[in-house]
Write a structure and sequence with these properties.
Structural class: alpha+beta
Number of strands: 18
Order of helices and strands: HEEEEEEEEEEEEEEEEEEH
Strand content: 25-35%
Number of helices: 2
Length: 247
């Protein structure tokens, strides 16, 4: 029956996407603030009519309908860089994209751009609680970032980082480079009591051993599905040959 091949093929398609997800997790093991993801699967039930029954039989295909983001906190590591900042607990830094959109990240590895503005490694500008970029004067070098996000130099306080939280963090859309965009139904809320640590970075929460184990399981499942397809193909071929010999 051809349905067996279709079922195995649907399983292979879902496993292929799962392997991509595992590979992406592995590629970001050393990315600051990265949150690992896992695929979500369900059965797609379809009704089919057969010659053996007056009623419609049901067959179940594999369907991957999304990904679940692991929100657990990654391990903290000391860097000694005054522009590295880690968030302990919930919260996101607010940054500005080139088109002016507000994006959010937990990757606290920042730098000074050519204009003296604090920016992410990929160039997005860090935003203060006054909704403007954080700018340092050319003669300012001693940068201090307090627990609540207040930024000071040898010339005094220059601003406070805008740190926000969301009612449903998993509803944030990933846009790449550790950045997230908020959906229309998700409003960023200012954190009442943020906890920042200067000179540290939050590491990725991906466990490489777990991901390698998952990768092996996905590969074995894919091979089993392929074996099922091969067996079904051989069964159909044998049936055709047996039928042809009758004539």
């Amino acid at each position: 029956m051809e349905n067996a091949g279709y079922i195995a093929l649907s399983r292979q398609t879902a496993l292929w996407r799962q392997m991509d997800q595992v590979a992406n997790n592995m590629a970001n093991v050393n990315t600051a603030g990265f949150k690992g993801e896992q695929m979500l699967f369900t059965d797609y039930v379809a009704a089919v009519r057969t010659d053996r029954s007056l009623f419609r039989d049901k067959i179940a295909y594999t369907e991957d309908f999304g990904a679940a983001r692991d929100l657990s906190e990654g391990a903290m590591r000391t860097t000694g860089n005054p522009l590295d900042v880690a968030i302990k607990g919930d919260g996101y830094f607010t940054v500005e994209a080139e088109n002016g959109d507000r994006l959010y990240t937990r990757n606290g590895h920042f730098k000074l751009n050519a204009n003296g503005q604090l920016a992410t490694s990929s160039g997005e500008l860090l935003i203060s609680d006054s909704d403007t970029p954080v700018v340092l004067a050319p003669n300012e070098s001693e940068i201090t970032i307090a627990r609540d996000g207040t930024i000071s130099t040898e010339n005094g306080q220059i601003g406070r980082l805008r740190l926000v939280g969301f009612d449903n963090q998993r509803a944030l859309n990933k846009v790449g480079d550790g950045l997230y965009a908020a959906r229309q139904d998700q409003t960023p809320n200012p954190l009442a009591a943020p906890h920042l640590v200067q000179g540290m970075l939050e590491g990725s929460n991906v466990n490489p051993i777990t991901e390698i184990t998952r990768m092996i399981n996905v590969q074995r499942s894919y091979e089993q599905a392929q074996k099922m397809i091969d067996i079904e193909h051989q069964r159909v071929s044998d049936a055709i040959e047996a039928y042809a010999r009758q004539f």
